[in-house]
Amino acid sequence: MYEFMRGRVVSALPGVAVLDVGGIGFRVFVPFSTSGKLRAGAEATLLLYHTINAEQGEERLYGFGTEDERRLFKALLEVKGIGPATALQVLCAADADRLIELIASGDVAGLKKFKGIGPKSAERIVTELREKVAPWAKGSAVIGSGPPIALDSAAGDAVLALIALGYPPAKSEEAVRKSAGSLGDKASTEEIVRKALQLV
């Protein structure tokens, strides 16, 4: 339902941030790696995941500074017994790259060391996600590999624009990375999007 939000950071505490978007304050639950980069008064963009608990009538927004974080969060939700709160707790325990490395290598013992991951959960995570996240590990030649794209840049805006048009995040990032590289640092968002649309 929600893809991303951009607004002024009202507050940023470990694990939760409040953003003022058009005069409306949104509370967003975020990994420590994201909340640590947010500064009160500054503008920020967060990639979103929206949940609804029908029984309790509660809605929650989870926000991420990178697509890697959100992608891993979604993958964790596919594991039996892991809900949004636990998935966020796992992401708070270690950065996305480290978690992907442990899952891809089948390191159950390493995963068990993190708060929120018990022996059974660690085994399920490896069993159910190992093949899926292996291509995401650093050094793998996959779409979306390369230096991260800053969300508060013309290239970052171009990625969000392509995602909003319905293109997969990884392919959007790769197309924008190639387009921005060929156009140069001074290229506008519109120029990057136009060129990227020829590549996705």
User: What count of domains describes the coordinates?
Assistant: 3
Q: SSE order in H/E notation?
A: EEEHEEHHHHHHHH
Biggest sheet overview: 5 strands, mixed, barrel
- Which CATH class of the largest domain is shown? Mainly Alpha
Query: What is the helical fraction, as a range of percent?
Result: 40-55%
The geometry reads as: globular
CATH architecture group name of the largest domain: Orthogonal Bundle
Q: List low-pLDDT spans.
A: 139-145
CATH topology group of the largest domain: DNA polymerase, domain 1
Q: Strand sequence of the main sheet, in spatial order? A: 1-2-3-5-4
Number of strands: 5
Distance between the ends: 22 Å
Structural class: alpha+beta
Residue fraction in strands: 15-25%
Number of helices: 9
Radius of gyration: 17 Å
Verbal overview:
The protein has a 5-stranded mixed barrel with strand order 1-2-3-5-4. 44% of the residues lie in helices and 20% in strands. The protein folds into 3 domains: 4-64, Nucleic acid-binding proteins (OB fold (Dihydrolipoamide Acetyltransferase, E2P), Beta Barrel), CATH 2.40.50.140; 67-136, 5' to 3' exonuclease, C-terminal subdomain (DNA polymerase, domain 1); 154-196. It contains 9 helices and 5 strands, in the order E-E-E-H-E-E-H-H-H-H-H-H-H-H. A hairpin with a 4-residue loop joins strand 4 and strand 5. The protein has helices spanning 32-35, 67-77, 84-93, 96-104, 108-112, 119-133, 154-164, 169-183, 189-196; strands spanning 4-13, 16-21, 24-29, 43-53, 58-64. The chain is an alpha+beta fold. The longest helix has 15 residues, at 119-133.
